[in-house]
Amino acid sequence: MECTNYVVDAIIKETAFIKSFYLKREDGKFLKRHLPGQYLLFSLPIKNKKLMRFYTISDYFNGNNYRISIKKELAPDGSTDTPNGLGSSYFHEQVEVGTILKAKGPSGEFTVDSKSNQPLVLIAGGIGVTPILSMLNAISKENPLREVFIYLAMQNKINHPFKEQIEKLINQHHSFNLTVFYDKATDRDIFGKDYHVVGRFSLNKIKTQLGNLTEYNYYICGPSPMMNQITQDLNQNNVAKENINTEAFGPASPSGHRPDEIVNNSVVKNGGQLTVEFEKSGIILDWDNACSSILELAETNGIPIDAGCLFGDCGTCITKIIDGDVVYNHTTGIDAGLGSCLPCSCKPINSLRLDA
Asked: For 167-207, what is each residue's pLDDT tens digit?
């Protein structure tokens, strides 16, 4: 992967578990302009290996730096048997001002035409607010009169990143409308000020405000279950597919799946009885049960496979299966099709040969 070197110019703590990292090119050259909603794909030196992780640029392009905002992903339910997220822990625990990072991009198709006049609905769950904020900042600069409805689904004020920044934009633009959902509000959270709706986001709770749902272009970013439900509800209300744009964000366990979405948790064989052959790379490996996915096995052994979302929702890692079968850790947003797989989200169930 051809990468650019970036130096960390500043680090800002947004919440207890979210930090923003400001990046400049190490060589001092101009930054490539990014579209609102795009991300950088990082090659991270973790445990003497290179792991690929992508993080969204969370601000409007200013020509001076990129801002990425990363939530530290903790082991599910406080488990001590599984580690915290490798990529996010690396940023939170090891990256300092002056650290050099390698990344490719900007890339990604989850982008908004900030100059269009079509009414817009932006829906974010948790850390999925990062591309939504980039979009909102771009619209405020380039098309401030555009009608935009922003819906944020958060736990509470403590876990509500960029609260002040978004409220400032709302106060500056009368065409921007904000509704915040808290599903775990505390006694310190003020209804009507910090948040407006109790509970989780649902389309039924906003239909009255929006009126004719078919008039809007929708951008939804958050955990897959949330996005799948919203997309289904929009489809049932006759919203055209081309007006629904999604990108998966949210907590995933270190094994690469959310506990409530496991499709098949079969135990695969090990110890030389099961191999994975990467034909293009000319490498044959014994399957390692410690790996959460075929992609992790490849990364661990220096075998290049392009990857994006790491959850089977972007299709970047689609790879042809020459021989063998796989089982998926969870439901994916992309159907790899017959004869192919998403290495980020599956494991082999017999000896496997891949076109990689």
From this structure: 999 999 999 999 999 999 999 999 999 999 999 999 999 99
Partners of residue 346 on adjacent β-strands: 328
Distance CA 332, CA 345 (A): 8
| Predicted TM-score (pTM) of this structure | 0.75
For the chain, how big is the Rg over CA atoms in Å?
A: 21
Please give the C-alpha separations between residue 120 and each of 137, 164, 173, 176, in angstroms, as whole numbers.
14, 21, 14, 10
Give dist(CA 52, CA 222) in Å, integer: 20
> Contact, 301 vs 294, CB < 8 A?
no
- CA 111 to chain CA mean position, Å: 13
CB 20: neighbour CB atoms within 10 A? 18
**Residue the block writes with tokens 């509000």:** 185
What domains sit in the chain, N to C, each tagged with a CATH number?
4-107 (2.40.30.10), 120-248 (3.40.50.80), 261-354 (3.10.20.30)
